[in-house]
Design goal:
alpha/beta; Rossmann fold; 9 helices; 5 strands; 48% helix
């Protein structure tokens, strides 16, 4: 089964309707029929980012949704993967890659996964495809100048949807479930 790597960027974008990548994350969630690959380190980043009391339930729901689909894979914390991530981190002092990203790169290579649900340019620097990347503003301006229609406008504010995907951590329209269960 083909998997795509789910970075914390994806989960934060999915949970926040004001996030610039929210529309792309929701669109992927609705169309995805494949399985997700992630790590406990990524999920730790997500939980840390949602640690404020009213938002804690959102993490529990995302985790439950990921675990509900047997095809999804959460790579557990283990000393070998951690050490390999640290080695990769230390081998690239020229980059500003986080240790969590380096561990993600090691896991993606091990699992032969080339695509990541992220907009983080570090994944591209490491040779992976960032599926949620926004078009750079200068590219959009050039497209407009040439008469082309831009595909993305990162400076535009997303319009609020009729249904929020997350209201204090509760999924109101199943987006969390769609994202992780491929429904």
């Amino acid at each position: 089964m083909t998997r795509v790597f789910a970075d914390s960027f994806f989960f934060f974008a999915l949970l926040n309707p004001r996030d610039a990548a929210h529309a792309k994350a929701v669109d992927f969630s609705r169309r995805n029929r494949g399985a997700l690959l992630t790590t406990v380190w990524v999920l730790t980043e997500l939980a840390d980012g949602l640690a404020s009391t009213p938002r804690r339930q959102a993490f529990r729901q995302v985790l439950a949704d990921i675990e509900a689909r047997p095809a999804n894979l959460i790579v557990p914390a283990n000393p070998e993967t951690f050490e390999r991530g640290v080695d990769f981190y230390n081998a690239r002092p020229d980059k500003e890659w986080s240790l969590t990203d380096c561990i993600s790169f090691v896991v993606m290579a091990d699992e032969r996964v080339a695509e990541a649900l992220t907009g983080d340019r570090h994944f591209e620097q490491a040779g992976f495809v960032a599926l949620l990347k926004q078009a750079p503003p200068f590219q959009i301006q050039a497209e407009r100048h040439n008469g082309d229609t831009p595909t993305e406008n990162p400076s535009a504010k997303p319009r609020p949807s009729k249904k929020k995907c997350c209201d204090r951590g509760r999924s109101s329209d199943g987006l969390h479930k769609q994202a992780v269960n491929g429904e």
